[in-house]
Amino acid sequence: MIKHERRLLTKAAHAVAGRISVKREQDRSWPSDHSRLCALASLGKVRWLGEQAGPHLGGMFASWEITERGLASLEAMTSDHLSDMR
Prior knowledge:
There is one protein chain. The chain is of the alpha+beta class. It has a single domain, classed as Winged helix-like DNA-binding domain superfamily/Winged helix DNA-binding domain (Arc Repressor Mutant, subunit A, Orthogonal Bundle). Helices cover 48% and strands 23% of the residues. It has a 3-stranded antiparallel β-sheet with strand order 1-3-2. Strand 2 and strand 3 (60-66) form a beta hairpin. 14% of the residues are buried.
């Protein structure tokens, strides 16, 4: 999960207001990043904001916001990655 964790936390950290959203599929299932973000929320690295309808009929988005713990975790992963490259 480290690779996905870094990718999702980085995406949230660079986004406006530190938020990341995933869109529900047309068959009403969620993409795999939804469960990954739920796992990060259980660790306190992101905070669940809820679901909201998108601009198109039937479009639904789930949103999370990166937390201080998530930012610290990302910083640690980034510094570990840089030291591994040396």
